């Protein structure tokens, strides 16, 4: 009899706790506030790796909604002002923010498959540096929400020095190859763009049509002074024993985060 | 000289022109910052002086002192990393700007922004590896540290440097700071300025004009 009473009591307490949690959860969901939202597990590993864009955009929707001003305070019209890289054929449409350029514009939708967590790997309200007492978050970069090494994959210099046969940057040598990247790349580094944030087939199609599209990412928007060290590929099998100095320290596989 | 218009040649020339890329400015002298990570007490007087000078509301912070604290007792450590705009030799913000609002001075390498030309697209903010360009939600514009360029032109030092009570933050020609020939209280006897500290983005990305006196637990071996 005592056992049965204890069991009933246990079940009652468990139900009470469960209902309390549900109520607390509901309350939290209905009235999210900034401070508690910062501690949402979605901002931390491992939850952030499985976060859906819809979950991120539930709070951060403004990143895809906000557009640049139609004109600057001094009267410079957005529609009439283009940067050097925006005069290329690969640039289309009106001025947009970088988030929209990577996720929702027509070119972005055609060539890319970026998700929020492709770039954003979480933060920690307690600390902005990894390896300290207050955080277990890894790869935090001071003052940044994203590790710039990810940006470097498409915004690095055109690495002509490691490409046999090229004597200068692409704009200088393009005419020698009739402006066609595929002249060499039907032989070299044929396994490419197999990353989960790129639309491989569409990129290949765009590249075949016009090499300026290739240059659009591979040098044509080089914000950084260095090139991204792309992984070594099995082309070395075609040239047994050939391992150039520049390739010695390079990995042979991309991090799983970009391939799975 | 032929008077015939060679359409193919013109077409090729137009295509070539379109492939033109941005050429970085090479200044006569490059000014840069030096910060002593260990002797900095983290009082944030530099941050406040900066906000005061630039009339910034809560939110945008041109300069930020990061507190790095860690270790396990008794082997614990604490130091500060203090950064604003690093006035990079090859700034990533500059080429992204569609209106030419960001520019680099040829005389001293200061990277400045004319916010009246800014359309608030925030590309520079994303491209900078050190979080220098700051978005002001008050007017939807990007603003950033310009090393108090008016003070520099008047022969003085920026507000952050003048506010530093420990004298651990200073500016000077970055080459002289690097080779130790620059006379400053921010570099102590035997201190060796380094380009990068732990948790900071790779300086090779943009070649930032800043050097640190790193803490023994805050150095990055390969970049020193």
From TrEMBL, chain B:
One of its GO terms (molecular function) is 4 iron, 4 sulfur cluster binding. CDD domains: DMSOR_beta_like. SUPFAM superfamilies: 4Fe-4S ferredoxins. The keyword Oxidoreductase does not apply. Residues 32-61, 77-108, 109-138 form the 4Fe-4S ferredoxin-type domain. Keywords: 4Fe-4S, Electron transport, Iron, Iron-sulfur, Metal-binding, Repeat, Transport. The keyword Iron-sulfur applies. This is 4Fe-4S ferredoxin. It comes from endosymbiont of Escarpia spicata. The lineage of its organism: Bacteria, Pseudomonadati, Pseudomonadota, Gammaproteobacteria, sulfur-oxidizing symbionts.
């Amino acid at each position: 009899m005592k056992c049965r009473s204890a069991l009933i009591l246990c079940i009652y307490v468990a139900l009470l706790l469960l209902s309390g949690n549900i109520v607390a959860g509901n309350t939290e969901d209905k009235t999210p506030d900034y401070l508690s939202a910062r501690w949402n597990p979605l901002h931390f590993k491992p939850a952030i790796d499985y976060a859906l864009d819809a979950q991120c955009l539930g709070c951060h929707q403004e990143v895809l909604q906000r557009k640049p001003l139609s004109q600057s305070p001094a009267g410079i019209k957005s529609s009439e002002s283009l940067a050097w890289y925006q005069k290329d054929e690969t640039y289309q449409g009106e001025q947009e923010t970088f988030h929209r350029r990577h996720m929702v514009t027509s070119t972005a939708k055609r060539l890319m498959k970026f998700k929020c967590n492709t770039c954003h790997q979480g933060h920690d309200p307690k600390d902005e540096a990894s390896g300290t007492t207050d955080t277990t978050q890894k790869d935090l970069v001071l003052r940044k929400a994203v590790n710039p090494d990810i940006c470097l994959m498409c915004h690095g210099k055109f690495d002509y020095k490691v490409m046999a046969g090229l004597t200068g940057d692409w704009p200088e040598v393009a005419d020698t190859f009739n402006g066609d990247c595929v002249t060499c790349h039907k032989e070299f580094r044929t396994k490419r763009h197999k990353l989960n944030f790129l639309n491989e087939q569409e990129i290949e199609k765009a590249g075949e049509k016009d090499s300026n599209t290739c240059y659009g990412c591979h040098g044509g928007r080089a914000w950084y002074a260095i090139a991204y060290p792309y992984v070594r590929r099995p082309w070395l099998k075609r040239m047994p024993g050939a391992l150039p100095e520049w390739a010695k320290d390079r990995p042979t596989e991309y991090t799983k985060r970009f391939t799975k | 000289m032929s008077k015939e218009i060679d359409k193919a040649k013109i077409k090729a020339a137009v295509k070539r022109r379109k492939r033109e890329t941005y050429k970085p400015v090479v200044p006569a002298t490059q000014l840069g910052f030096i910060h002593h990570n260990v002797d900095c007490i983290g009082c944030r007087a530099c941050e406040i002086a900066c906000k005061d000078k630039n009339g910034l509301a809560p939110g945008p912070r041109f300069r930020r002192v990061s507190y790095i604290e860690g270790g396990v007792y008794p082997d614990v450590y604490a130091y500060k990393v203090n950064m604003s705009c690093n006035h990079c030799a090859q700034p990533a913000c500059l080429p992204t700007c569609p209106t030419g609002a960001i520019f680099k001075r040829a005389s001293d390498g200061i990277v400045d922004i004319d916010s009246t030309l800014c359309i608030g697209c925030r590309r520079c903010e994303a491209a900078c590896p050190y979080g220098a360009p700051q978005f002001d939600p008050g007017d939807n514009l990007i603003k950033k540290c310009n090393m108090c360029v008016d003070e520099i032109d008047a022969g003085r030092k920026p507000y952050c440097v003048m506010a530093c009570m420990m004298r651990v933050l200073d500016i000077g020609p970055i080459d002289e700071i690097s080779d130790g020939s620059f006379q400053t209280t921010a570099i102590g006897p035997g201190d060796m300025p380094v380009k990068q500290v732990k948790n900071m983005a790779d300086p090779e990305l943009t070649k930032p004009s800043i050097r640190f006196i790193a803490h023994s637990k805050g150095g990055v071996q390969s970049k020193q």
